[in-house]
Every structure is written in structure tokens, then in C-alpha cells.
Specification:
This protein is an all-alpha fold. It is 60% helix and 0% strand. It is built from 4 helices and no strands. It starts with 13 loop residues before the first helix and ends in a 5-residue tail after the last helix.
Amino acid sequence: MTRISLVEPEAAQPEVKAIYERLQSHGFDIFNVMKVFANDVQFLAGFEQMLYALYADETLPARYRELAWLRTSSINQCHY
């Protein structure tokens, strides 16, 4: 039993459904962490903007974005 409920697409309010659909149209899967974030529509919307900034903006080549993820994980002692 989860402490924070997951917002499933079929039970989501219209704003959340729209965000889920946009994410999926850009090739993102809807993971449980996103379903948790969907409990607060504004938080999920901010997360969506962050994803687009990190993955859709091609200013920084994918190779360097990945190196940034790996270095950040290493600094934080977080297994990536």
C-alpha cells in the first residue's frame, strides 16, 4: 500500500491527462514518480517543463547531458 496515491491516467483530472498525453507524444513513458507528482498539477507541470529543458532542448549535445547526469550522480553518491 502506497502512502501517496498514484494518479492513473484514466482517473486523472483533465489538466493531468493533458500533461500525460503531451509527455507520451514526446516519447516519455508515464512512470510512477510522475503519477505521484500528478497529485499537484502545478508540480507535474513544472516537472514536464524540466523534462523538456533537459531532453528536448538540443543546445547541449546528448553526450554531454549524459556526462552531467553521471557526474551529478557521482558527486551525490547516488547510483545511476
